[in-house]
Here is the input.
Amino acid sequence: MMNRINNIRNIDYLSEHEYIYTNMYGGYMSTSLGFYNRRKYHSLFTYIGSENNFTPYKVLSSIDETLKINGEDFMLGIRKYPMNYFPNGNDFIKDVDIDNASTTYTIENNVFKKEVCFRYDKQQVLIKYSLVKANSDVKITINPLLTYCSIHDLLHKDDNIKPDIENVEGGYKFRLFKEMPWIFMQSNKALDFEKDIEWNMNIEYDTERERGYDYQEDLLSIGNLSKILKEKDSVTITFGTHIEDYKNIDSIFDLEISKIKRLDHDNWINTLRERASMFLAKQGDEEVVIAGYPWFGSWGRDTLISLPGLTLSQNNVDGCIKIIDSMVSKMRHGLFINMGSAYNSCDAPLWLAWTLQQLEEHIGIDKIYDKYFNTINSIIEAYHEGINPEIKVMENGLVYVNSNGKALTWMDAIVENKPVTERMGYQVEINALWYNMLSYGIDLAKHGDNKELAKKWNSLRKNVKRNFLATFYNPKNNCLYDYVNKVGASSQIRPNQIIACSLKYSPLTKSEKGMIFDITKKYLLTPKGLRTLCPYDKNYQYECIGTQSQRDIAYHNGTVWVWLLEHYVQAGFNIYGKKYKKEAKKIFDNFSNEIWVGGLGSIAEIYDAEYPHKQRGTIAQAWSVASIIRIDDLIRKN
Here is the structure.
């Protein structure tokens, strides 16, 4: 429990700590402490659509609770309107529990508790109200505030919305319009229901205003549920896509609460490991990695980079294989799907070799060869022959990306239909990954006694090694160019070069790696990750704030990314061996408090480039979490 009475009722303090609970389908519950919605993405019940549409939809935005005590009404909700907050339920908060989305309120010596539980194996949220202590009977009135739209959208008043409400056993089912599936609202005890269709207008989400988005929403109330509670009484209600046996609601709630792993201050990395599975989702017949909550979906590049830390580090080998197999089944012309249905990532296929190298440690090279040799071979062939006019291997053996106004690497921010960092040409991390892919392909070919293929790829690998440093060496800064094209070379100091030092197979010598490592440490290393650009560069952005365009410009021009730390630490061990362990432990320990701020129990996507390195982006990011877990693995291994 958190007993910071001086802060706990402060709305700014509440908004800096956010619950994020997910289910096995990629649905979620997210809100700030005290159940204050500061984002358009906040919702007590966001579910995944039909089997053919995996879009997350918000349904239950929030709930207004009113307690009638000795004839006076006390409202527990917290909302922002133009110029004011109302209700001000934060005035009554005594405690919040960061583990099970629980808030305790005190009103005139009465103690009241609200607990929210998001089910993992169902599309359902449960809310339990308990009158812990009371001087007399208390009437509770519950007013659900409803929406129905994509997580990226906001609902606005529409007089054409005519909600359907029907009785079901233990409660009601409703839908706001015909296209919406029925949502079942039930309780373990009989509640009085008063139908009252009313719009709650102009609710504001300050985070969205800060981010330059539409920030006002209208929510719909279909009526009020009420009940008289005596001391020690409780009532539990559910919202979900299926009907429940209302007699079992209490036991379901107790079971789900018991499954929640408490955040462990003394062993925070165990908490991170236990909650890593939140990014693994089942969508139809496939298993996927959700790149980040609350607004990202499944991305090919992020999946492969995240997968070892999210699965293998937790001994979930089968989960890792299923997700890889799903991606491989949809591979086309040597490319994986990256976002939605787009085959727009020139590096995702190359990351497969890195992911399989981690998997090999768990299942052995025999199984890797049997399952994935043909895939690796087909990717190498595709790159060698030219995947398309945009991605092809040149005579020097290096991969050339003619992005032509597209953002095909992980630095993929777009502003005014143009990449912020286009990086057209030979990109340093792409060619480091290409060298590693060729080397792994040769390993597998030799294992399968395919001498001709091994000889063919070895000849190409030698060409890559011969030309890599000659192409990328930056004598002015004693590191590597970020990219090189026909016009010239980019001497901007960026973190992509560290990947050439972290991979199992690298075209660089140990001394060359050390040179790059030192430059990266000097200009890019922060306590929360690697900057994406040297602070002395004219394009450097020290914080990622403002409108979407402003944030996109900063996104890869200074903003700190956590996922790169795994490769920085791996490079440190590659260069210095066990002597690097002490330094790696310092980097790891910098995250010991991160699960207690922002997205509770998780790690944010990005951080500002300068102190105090404020969290930005998603509140829970798959490859950020995976990176810290993998750093822990590296420390233990060394």
